C-alpha cells in the first residue's frame, strides 16, 4: 500500500466516525444520507480527492496528502481552493463549495470560505454533516459576526473590566483563536468572563460555551455568579436568557448554551467514562504527575464532536492544565479565553502571546480594588535549623489512620527543617507559633480588636492540618466551632467553607490546597503560612486569599470588633516563605516603623526612593479607605 493509500484509509475512518457515508464514483448516490463523501470526484481541473454532499448538494472538498507532508500541508491550500472554484461534472443545480479541508491521516485543517479574510485552522477531525447543514442555514458566520460587536454599556463596570472586554472584542474581530486576560485577584475576572460570554452568545451567535475550571468548588462559585448576572441591555438575568448547566455527570443537555465543568469531568465525558466526584475536589495542578506516563489521550466522541463548543473560557488558566490536559482544550474547534491573576511564561506561550489586558495587583491596591499586606515573621530555632533527637523511646504515628505506637530508636537522629511536620511532628513547634500569634494579635497585628480576625492557616499535609486545629483550639481555649479544617478529606468541606465565608464561626480555618487558590472569602484578614511553597505563581495565588477588599458593614457582619473598612491583611510567616523572592509584586509598605509625618517630610525635602514613595502611598490608600 502506498503512503497516499494509507493516508486515505485513515481519512476514510475519520469521515465514517464523523457520520459521513463514503462512496466511489461508480456507486455514487449523494442522496443516500444527509452527508455523503464521494472519492475522486471529477472536476474541470482534474479529480478532487473527496467532495462532500449535504442533502444531495455539493458543499465541500477534501484534498488528502500522505502523512509525512503534514508539516507542509498549508501549501496545499491553493490546490484545495482551485478545486473548490472548479466546475463539478454531472452537477446540474446551482451550488457553492463553501468548506475545504486539507488532510493527512494524522492532521486535518479546515477553511470556511464564507469567513471574511478566511483563514485555515487545524481541527481534531471532520465536522459532522449536521454541523455543516447548521452552518449553511445561518445568515452569517461566527467570525463575521464578531467583527460587529456593539459598543459596551460600561455602567457598573470597573475600568480594568471595560478594557478587558473591549480588547477581547478586538481580538475576536481579528480571528485570533486564543486570548489571555490577566486581572488581579478580586478585580472581577468571572464577571468580565460572563459579560464576554453574553456578548458572544447574543451578538456572535455562538451556540455553546464551555466554562472550564479545575475544582468542583470553583465550578460552584462560577455557577452562582452566572445565575445572578444581569446585563445592562436586558432586565432579565442570565439564567432567564440562556440555558446554564454545571455538569455533575457524563450527560450534557442539548438545550443549554453555557456548560460549567471541571477539566477532569470533561476529559471523562470525551472518553465515555464515569468520574468519581472526589477527583474534582482538588486541582490536578496541586499534585503534579509524571507527564510522560499520564498524557491525556482524547479520542473522537460522536455525541460531543470537536465542533460542539464554540468557545472555552478557562478559569485559573495559569495552572498546568495545558501540559497533561492539553488535548481536552485542543479537541474542540473553539476560541479559548484564559483568565488568571498570575500568568507565567508557559501561560503566555499557550495563549500565543495574545495578552489582551493586564491589571496588576499593585495597581488594584492603588485603585482600592484590593488591599495590601503587612508581614509578621515568627522564626524559631527549629524552623530555622531543624533539631536533634536523642536515642530514646519515641512515638510513631500512621499519617492516614493516626494509629500510635511506641518504638525504641536505634540511634540519635538529626532532622532538617524541611522534614518538620512531614516526617517529623513537633507539637511544641506548632504551639510556639500559635501562641506567638495569639500574644501579638491585639498588640501589633490588629490593635484594638477583642476577637480573632478571620484567619486562614496553610498546612503541609492533612495530618499536619489536624495537629494545627487541635493546638489552635487549645491555645485559644475555644471549642470545635472556633477552628476547623477545610480540606478535601474533611467532612462536608463546602458547608464549613460557607460558614467561614458568611458566619461568625469558624474564626480560624486550616487548609492544605483546597482553598489556597481561586476561592473567594473576602472577610479573611490574616494568613498564617506554616508551609513553604516553591512556586512563585502558587504563592501569589495563596496571598490572594487575603487581598480582597470589604466594606465596614459587611466586615462587621462576621467580625464585630472591626472599626472600619478592611484596609489591609496580615501575613504571618512561620516558615520563611516571604524571605525568598517568589513573585514580581511586592508589599507597598517598606518602612513600617517610620511615621507618616516623617515620610511626608522626607518627600517634602526631596526623597524620591521607591521604598519611601510606596510606603507613603500605602498609608494614604489605607487612610482613604477609612475616611468618610
Please describe what this structure looks like:
- By secondary structure, this protein is of the alpha/beta class.
- It is built from 20 helices and 24 strands.
- Helix 14 crosses helix 15 and helix 19 crosses helix 20.
- It is elongated.
Using the coordinates above, name the CATH class of the largest domain: Alpha Beta
Q: State Rg.
A: 29 Å
| Alpha-beta classification | alpha/beta
Number of domains: 3
Number of strands: 24
The CATH fourth-level homologous superfamily of the largest domain: P-loop containing nucleotide triphosphate hydrolases
Low-confidence stretches: 387-393
Distance, first to last CA: 83 Å
Major β-sheet strand ordering: 1-2-3-4-5-6-7
Main sheet characteristics: 7 strands, mixed
User: What name does the CATH topology of the largest domain carry?
Assistant: Rossmann fold
* CATH architecture grouping of the largest domain: 3-Layer(aba) Sandwich
Counted by DSSP, the helix tally is: 20
Compute the average pLDDT.
87
- The percent range for strand residues is 15-25%
Summarize the amount of helix as a percent range. 25-40%
Backbone shape: elongated
Compact summary:
The chain is α/β, with parallel strands linked by helices and 628 residues long. It is 32% helix and 18% strand.
Amino acid at each position: 500500500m502506498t503512503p497516499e493509500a494509507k493516508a486515505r484509509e485513515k481519512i476514510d475512518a475519520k469521515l465514517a466516525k464523523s457520520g459521513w457515508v463514503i462512496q466511489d464514483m461508480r456507486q455514487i448516490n449523494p442522496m443516500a444520507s444527509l452527508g455523503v463523501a464521494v472519492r475522486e470526484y471529477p472536476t474541470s481541473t482534474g479529480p478532487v480527492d473527496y467532495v462532500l454532499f449535504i442533502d444531495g448538494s455539493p458543499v465541500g472538498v477534501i484534498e488528502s496528502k500522505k502523512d509525512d507532508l503534514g508539516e507542509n500541508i498549508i501549501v496545499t491550500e491553493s490546490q484545495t481552493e482551485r478545486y473548490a472554484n472548479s466546475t463539478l461534472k454531472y452537477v446540474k443545480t446551482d451550488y457553492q463549495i463553501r468548506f475545504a479541508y486539507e488532510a493527512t491521516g494524522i492532521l486535518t485543517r479546515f477553511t470556511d470560505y464564507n469567513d471574511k479574510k478566511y483563514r485555515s485552522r487545524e481541527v481534531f477531525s471532520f465536522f459532522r454533516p449536521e454541523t455543516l447543514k447548521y452552518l449553511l442555514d445561518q445568515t452569517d458566520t461566527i467570525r463575521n459576526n464578531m467583527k460587529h460587536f456593539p459598543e459596551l454599556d460600561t455602567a457598573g463596570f470597573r475600568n480594568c473590566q471595560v478594557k478587558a472586554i473591549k480588547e477581547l472584542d478586538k481580538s475576536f474581530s481579528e480571528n485570533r483563536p486564543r486570548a489571555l486576560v490577566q486581572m488581579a485577584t478580586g478585580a472581577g475576572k468571572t464577571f468580565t468572563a460572563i459579560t464576554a460570554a453574553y456578548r458572544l452568545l447574543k451578538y456572535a451567535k455562538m451556540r455553546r460555551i464551555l466554562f472550564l475550571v479545575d475544582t468542583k468548588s470553583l465550578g460552584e462559585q462560577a455557577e452562582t455568579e452566572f445565575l445572578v448576572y444581569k446585563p445592562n441591555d436586558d432586565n432579565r438575568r442570565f439564567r432567564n436568557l440562556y440555558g446554564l448547566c454545571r455538569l455533575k455527570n457524563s450527560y450534557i443537555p442539548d438545550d443549554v448554551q453555557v456548560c460549567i465543568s471541571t477539566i477532569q469531568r470533561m476529559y471523562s465525558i470525551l472518553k465515555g467514562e464515569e468520574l468519581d466526584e472526589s477527583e474534582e475536589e482538588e486541582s490536578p495542578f496541586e499534585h503534579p504527575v509524571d507527564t510522560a506516563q499520564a498524557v491525556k489521550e482524547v479520542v473522537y466522541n460522536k455525541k460531543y464532536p470537536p465542533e460542539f463548543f464554540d468557545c472555552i473560557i478557562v478559569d485559573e488558566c495559569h495552572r498546568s492544565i495545558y501540559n497533561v490536559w492539553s488535548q481536552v482544550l485542543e479537541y474542540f474547534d473553539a476560541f479559548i479565553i484564559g483568565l488568571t491573576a498570575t500568568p507565567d511564561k508557559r501561560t503566555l506561550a499557550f495563549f500565543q502571546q495574545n495578552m489582551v489586558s493586564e491589571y496588576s495587583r499593585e495597581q488594584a491596591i492603588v485603585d482600592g480594588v484590593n488591599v495590601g499586606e503587612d508581614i509578621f515573621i515568627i522564626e524559631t530555632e527549629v524552623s530555622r535549623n531543624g533539631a536533634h533527637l536523642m536515642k530514646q523511646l519515641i512515638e510513631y504515628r500512621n499519617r492516614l489512620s493516626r494509629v500510635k505506637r511506641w518504638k525504641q530508636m536505634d540511634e540519635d537522629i538529626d532532622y532538617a527543617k524541611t522534614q518538620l511536620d512531614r516526617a517529623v511532628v513537633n507539637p511544641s513547634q506548632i504551639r510556639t507559633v500559635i501562641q506567638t500569634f495569639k500574644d501579638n494579635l491585639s498588640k501589633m497585628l490588629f490593635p484594638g480588636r477583642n476577637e480573632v480576625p478571620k484567619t486562614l492557616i496553610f498546612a503541609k499535609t492533612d495530618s499536619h492540618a489536624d495537629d494545627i486545629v487541635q493546638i489552635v483550639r487549645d491555645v485559644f481555649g475555644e471549642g470545635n466551632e472556633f477552628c476547623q479544617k477545610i480540606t478535601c478529606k474533611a467532612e462536608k468541606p463546602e458547608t464549613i467553607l460557607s460558614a467561614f465565608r458568611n458566619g461568625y464561626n469558624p474564626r480560624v480555618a486550616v487548609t492544605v490546597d483546597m482553598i489556597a487558590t481561586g476561592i473567594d472569602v473576602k472577610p479573611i484578614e490574616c494568613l498564617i503560612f506554616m508551609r513553604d511553597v516553591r512556586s512563585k505563581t502558587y504563592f501569589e495565588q495563596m496571598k490572594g486569599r487575603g487581598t480582597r477588599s470589604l466594606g465596614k458593614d459587611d466586615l462587621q457582619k462576621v467580625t464585630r470588633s472591626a472599626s472600619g473598612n478592611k484596609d489591609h491583611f496580615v501575613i504571618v510567616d512561620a516558615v520563611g516563605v516571604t524571605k525568598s523572592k517568589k513573585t514580581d509584586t511586592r508589599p507597598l509598605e517598606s518602612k513600617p516603623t517610620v511615621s507618616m509625618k516623617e515620610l511626608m517630610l522626607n518627600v517634602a525635602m526631596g526623597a524620591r526612593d521607591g521604598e519611601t514613595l510606596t510606603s507613603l502611598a500605602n498609608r494614604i490608600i489605607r487612610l482613604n479607605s477609612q475616611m468618610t
